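quick one, 208 residues, struct below
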Amino acid sequence: MAKKKSSSKAWLKEHRDDPYVQQAQRDGYRSRACYKLLELQEKDNLIRRGMTVLDLGSAPGGWSQVASARVGDSGRVIASDILAMDSLEGVTFIEGDFTEDEVFQRIVAALDGKPVDVVISDMAPNMSGVHAVDQPRAIYLVELALDMAEQVLAPGGTFVAKVFHGEGFDQVFKQTKSAFAKVLTRKPKASRPRSREVYMVAKEFRGD
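---
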């Protein structure tokens, strides 16, 4: 128990001292994760004015915040998470598991017949610390997000997802490549160096 307490303390200290956490507070962003999407945006020009964006696993809302600012008044951001999320101007939030039909139908209704230009997912499972358990869970979430993207994206659309290096990575990368013309991975500066996370950026959805 003492060990767990000291590791929690160390995490809190690291979190408080993290320059991206401090920057997020100064910039009024909901999370340090915003800077990951901002860097991807800078490199790959993912989200543009007037687009429709679907943010999966959106809570606490950092990525939706970035997306909403980029699409402007003429665009739309639909966000979904199993956790509650405080409201954000310009963002329609749907609480629930997007893999359940009832939640999926609510997302479809919110889209109001418009195809999605970009699907973004910063989802990760609650980590247990046991790699053999955490890795399959993380890959499964990417597969769910990819499946959703394939159902709602307009031809030529973009998919961005957090994925962890390890077992299943090559398989999900290959799956994504079969659905998109261009797929690459990025490791944003705001992603902690010791983390195995990278971001898969898939462009030019082939559609049917």
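DSSP finds seven helices and seven strands in the chain.
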